[in-house]
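Fold this sequence, please.
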Amino acid sequence: MFTDVVGFTGLGQANEELAKVLAHSGKGDEARKLLSEIEAEYSPNNIHPYEIALVRFALGDVEDGFRWLKQAYVDHDRFLFIIARAYELKGLHSDPRYLALLEKTGLAGRVRD
């Protein structure tokens, strides 16, 4: 797999980013395989649920994306504060779950269209 070639051997943010690249590059099967490895090793200490959510959304897995955004909120993921400005989430701006999360985080008035 690509991860062997570039030398990513550990899980964490580097592999989260690689999964996003694979998903946005049309390599959904590879992204899902890597993502399943990341999710299996999930711990709030080494993997950001917000990043997993972005990969899920890029793959079209909206329900799982929201599940991981909820986990990001529960874990106080440091990346969650950018949900109002993240271009990757622009397509969710009318989704009631997204709007509810903005309210919970106090970011409701900061959405960028």
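Residues 1 and 86 are 29 Å apart (CA to CA). The chain has one domain: 2-110.
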